[in-house]
Amino acid sequence: MNKILIIDDEKGIREILASILEDEGYFVETAESGEIGLDKLKNDEFSLIFLDLWLPGIDGLQILEKISKELTPPEVIIISGHANVDVAVKAIKNGAFDCIEKPLDLNRILSLSKSAINKYKKRTENFILRDSSIKKSDLIGECPEIKKIKELIKQVGFTDSRVLILGENGTGKEVIAREIFKNSLRKDKPFIEVNCAAIPDNLIESELFGHEKGAFTGAHEGRIGKFEAAHGGTLFLDEIADMSLMAQAKVLRAIQEQKFHKVGSEKLIDVDIRIISATNKNIQEEIKNGNFREDLFFRLNVIPIELPSLRQRGDDVIILSDYFLQSYNKENKTNKKIVKDSITVLKEHTWPGNVRELKNFIEKACIISPTDNIDLKEFFNFSINHENNSSNLDDYTDLPLNQAKDEFEKKIIYNKLCEFDGNITKAANALGIYPSNLHNKIKKYGIKIDK
User: Looking at CB atoms within 10 Å, which of 219, 287, 330, 354 has the fewest?
Assistant: First the structure.
């Protein structure tokens, strides 16, 4: 969750900044003084702080000094109406990501926010993944298919072979990528993740390869891309089949040569990275339809790993449910339990959202249940579901597979948007996708909804 804290004594600045950032899907909190801001930092985790330099009481530089002593401090962007070169240099030396002046520039705010949060993610990811306390596997399950995948992960871990992970949405492709990384020789190096579906086509090249200052409109400063950030480590290209053909060509060349140009630069940058990629699409169909380059597929598909859907995993649904329940209890200091005779309903559901849907369902049951003993039958009405399933299936049986999938996805998205009164951010969170990805799907299907 990308949470941003705004510390500024001007109410107008706090409200404007919060409105801009919330429209982009960020979660924002505000504080009118340094003391209140520090209290919020004690009680919550933030990726980024917009920090006014001149505050009553404790000032911005003092706050920055306190923050920089934390183990994994948030990124800080100093904002001031009185900024000068000396102050900016001092702030950046003390660990600030950047320093900007009032009145604030909208495009610069959004650009810096994205870059700062990306930097925070990379820094905290590397810290967490190197933490000696994280030794156990996050790949939960004992069905034959999962056991085979666990064994394959051990085999490929000590190589630099490229891996292509295939599976439906919510099956745990990112978990597999991280397991491969944690079992690899590069486990002490960066693990950089890119959701290819969440990046607009006009920004994908900059996101992957970086750009120089002034390379295009809005490029107020240079930045490194994901390929460069992953140097020495692992680059995880999630939803690779959603990348445009133009971007695919550039990625293919970078993988082949292990070098690339930043946008707006003639200088070649050499990198040493391992590529893991994933998609929920039928890659052979995408190739056949001209949407994915066959030569790129051959480069990526050295070691294929195909994840089973949750409905194919038998008793793993019970094992996973218990895991999510115990995780909830530990995190929230509760003692929730599932009524034994209600567990069977878990295996009756088809779980179209797979493991992600199951996790969300268990969390919802824990929150909503009025007692510590959770009766899952209260959250399902399977007799109704079974009746609806047969009639719903009739809607799709006469359609080609791709069209049926599109129609089903369209219906799911429409229903979720209705549930959240057209709120893109909330609907995207519930669906487990990025808001920008949801925007693209709404446009693709021509979905219209009255708020």
Answer: 330
